Amino acid sequence: PADARLYRLLYPVVDAEALVAEAGAHGLEPGFVAALIRQESLFDPGATSGAGARGLMQVMPDLGTRVARSRGFPQWDPVLLWQPDVSLVIGTLHLAELAARYGDPVRILAAYNAGVSRVDRWAGKKGMDDPEVFAERIPFVETRDYVRIVQRNRDLYRVLYGW
Q1: pTM for this one?
Q2: What is the reported pLDDT for 42?
């Protein structure tokens, strides 16, 4: 029978201390960040998507460069996105930007997956004020599933790790 030990194997956290610290530094819930990382890379720092996103939080090199420059990083090279600590810093900074822009977890996740311009376009349609309606009407199946999965993962991380 399944118990918390089994679920912790299925929903791992690598370097929980750093994750909690980085999430807290940007006003993000650790379970939300962990859930996103699980979906993006399964906590594999060497993960690379077909589109070129890199690292734990699957940040695109151009986005990583923009975030690093806007935050005054003294040195930057997109290869750093494969370093777990750098991916966590850049990814949570970007996630915090999206949280400040949207506030609603559904829109934050949709923007992380599909991009800000698409979320802004979708949000402009009639009846999209309600987060649940917004989630159901996301036109991309991949993004719609992503939002649902990360929200489910967040709930599991909250319970399993007491966040």
Answers
A1: 0.93
A2: 95
